[in-house]
Amino acid sequence: MALDLGALALKYTGLAVSDHDSIVAINIFIALLCGCIVFGHLLEGNRWVNESTTALVLGLITGGVILICTKGVNSRILIFSEDIFFIYLLPPIIFNAGFQVKKKQFFRNFATIILFGAAGTLISFVIITFGAMGLFSKLDVGPLELGDYLAIGAIFSATDSVCTLQVLNQDEAPLLYSLVFGEGVVNDATSVVLFNAIQNIDINHFDVFVLLQFIGKFLYLFFTSTVLGVAAGLLSAYIIKKLCFARHSTDREVAIMILMAYLSYMLSMLLDLSGILTVFFCGIVMSHYTWHNVTESSRVTTKHTFATLSFIAEIFLFLYVGMDALDIDKWKLASSSPKKPIALSAVILGLVMVGRAAFVFPLSFLSNLSKKESHPKISFNQQVIIWWAGLMRGAVSIALAYNKFTTSGHTAVRVNAVMITSTIIVVLFSTMVFSAC
Amino acid sequence: MALDLGALALKYTGLAVSDHDSIVAINIFIALLCGCIVFGHLLEGNRWVNESTTALVLGLITGGVILICTKGVNSRILIFSEDIFFIYLLPPIIFNAGFQVKKKQFFRNFATIILFGAAGTLISFVIITFGAMGLFSKLDVGPLELGDYLAIGAIFSATDSVCTLQVLNQDEAPLLYSLVFGEGVVNDATSVVLFNAIQNIDINHFDVFVLLQFIGKFLYLFFTSTVLGVAAGLLSAYIIKKLCFARHSTDREVAIMILMAYLSYMLSMLLDLSGILTVFFCGIVMSHYTWHNVTESSRVTTKHTFATLSFIAEIFLFLYVGMDALDIDKWKLASSSPKKPIALSAVILGLVMVGRAAFVFPLSFLSNLSKKESHPKISFNQQVIIWWAGLMRGAVSIALAYNKFTTSGHTAVRVNAVMITSTIIVVLFSTMVFSAC
């Protein structure tokens, strides 16, 4: 049960973090993060860019410079790892999403959000999986099994709505914002749960019973994860209310809130639940109860601290993805026939668009049917925006693809390299193009 | 130049962080951190305890429980690593010290602080080194070389004034507080610089020229580290003033401040300077200039965020030290003659007390001599408190001892195990006893 932080600090070369190269890498990375904030701000007037795309582009440029400096040997100062993503970067982003969400709008549209986020993602997953099974064989991608196709369905069902939310305004379009936002979080949770469920399923004995088991497990995860998050949030509220920290109160209150939120996420991971859902609902409960039990300065501090941590994690992520995109080994391996990843990416993008259209319009119709006269309905224009907003694929897709198709960020199999490079192309293209339009 | 975060996430067993055991370890650790805050608060009325001692005791208890659960095989869920200490835990603590210091008092007593922190630490270092050379041979510790004795001098010259500062009150005893506080930071920097200088020195060709070189290098490090920290602080003030972040301003301002401060520390490490001094002066400049350029909510947020991060890092550290203290392998190795580490610790504690007395009283006398009539002098009672306050040995000593006497937290040599266990005894004893009196 010993987690050796000393060994955690070992590089894959066997040297410690305190060695010179790693310190150089950390310095470059932090300087780039600062650069992203500064450039992102300077380019703010331009509607084609935001911090995320700035970070992506800066990451790509840095990767290119390193590639030239190392004479084509290496493009990365940090190698993407889904552990880092799921343990350090995702929790602050999702927690902040829950903490800052406008709860009134969110719960008013709760049914629609769950419909889009859970049922919609499942529809999209089915369409992408079957589409990939039908079309990939014509591209001669390589030997993929049923499990791989199911994983591809889950990987490309995970949307990335961070960029859209930077364009949509919470005050001007509250209905749209809460729908896109809520769907994004539920969708992230659904696709991760789906992905994990697929990894554990016995594909050779697939029948109705297994399907029912699968659905049952899915609902169980959804329910227990939510309950755990709510419980952690309420416990933090109770502790802070009971203890009445006096001297140094703010530091202790903020520390308790940060630690309890992270604990809820890790506990959820420990129990094999969905950490994303848990920490999201923990954020909602904390902003609704705990936040009102703390001092005035704690309120200001928590609000901005969580936003800042989430902001840094997001830039870190996009910088990371941009830098990782130029990894020369995978491209060499994948590009024995250079057109293949591009053709594959185009097919995937098409499937993503069809898969999303296949649930946004029918489910909006259903949602409108069930609404009373007084409630605002989702107009066709809004449906198009919702469809468009969910086309971006981001870090969740990358993390899942790395989990499925690599071992610790490395692969030597051609078909895996093709899948990774295609995922990167889809993410770069969709983030750059869809977020700018 | 690739820092493989994937491999960073590898345990020493070769498994990834996402494996079950590591998640259990992280959960226990975060739960313990929460426990320390809650217990530390509940026991606040008691003058014998504070968060630090609570964390130490909780760490010891947890270590004991794990030792029993694993039937004496293991006591640690996290293995102490000086990389983690110097890269993640120390920077927020020292930066916050600089950020929150009362600058008026600090600069009024600047000469005395430097005298105590730099010259005093050197005197203490010389006395402990020569004392150890004279007394250790009588205890039959094992084969120690001149380099080892010099390292021991540096290791036990590093004070830990965190605990004292929790007892002293900045408003009631401003002179004492600023002296003890300032000396603590300068002392940390001096002993780390000393330790590194000793590691690089050629002991076999030691003469006056080498000594002069050593002193020259020491002054150079002191000066350049300070300049780097001041420059980083001023640059952050300039960036924030020039950019005038409008929307999301607080998040960006806070992010820039955190990132620039950390960058200054890592840059200092990269240039082989003293990161502690750099980040301390960066904190001072940021609180003096940058802090006045940001919005009101950023001021509240930064003040409390830095305090909270430092608070969490401190508890983490003491918990870590407490848990590591029961590492069964080292004790088995060291205790072939069980009295040895205890006798050795007693000798070291004696040397620490003598070494500190040897500079506090003479240097206070010098400082009083040079002061004009109008300035408050350091009374004898205050001198005793200053002497007492610096007797505690803490995480810096542990980190340096691990650096010198282990390889990635492990050792198989008996004399090294004896030195590590003695360091742990000195730290536990001095923290528990001296901070409580």
| Named CATH topology of chain A | Na+/H+ antiporter like fold
The number of E-state strands of chain A comes to 0
Distance between the termini of chain A: 50 Å
CATH class of chain A: Mainly Alpha
Give the mean pLDDT of chain A: 81
Shape of chain A: globular
Biggest interface in this structure?
A-B, 78 and 78 residues
Main beta sheet of chain A, described? none
Hey, roughly how much beta strand do the residues of chain A contain? under 5%
Order of secondary-structure elements of chain A: HHHHHHHHHHHHHHHHHH
General description of the model:
Chains A, B: InterPro entries: Cation/H_exchanger_CPA1 (IPR018422), Cation/H_exchanger_TM (IPR006153), NaH_exchanger (IPR004709). Chains A, B: It holds the Pfam family Na_H_Exchanger. Chains A, B: Keywords: Ion transport, Membrane, Potassium, Potassium transport, Sodium, Sodium transport, Transmembrane, Transmembrane helix, Transport. By secondary structure, chain A is an all-alpha fold. The first copy, chain A, has one domain (81-436): Up-down Bundle (Na+/H+ antiporter like fold), CATH 1.20.1530. Chain A is 76% helix and 0% strand. The first copy, chain A, contains 18 helices and no strands. At the A-B interface, helix 1, helix 2, helix 4, helix 11 and helix 13 of A face helix 1, helix 2, helix 4, helix 11 and helix 13 of B.
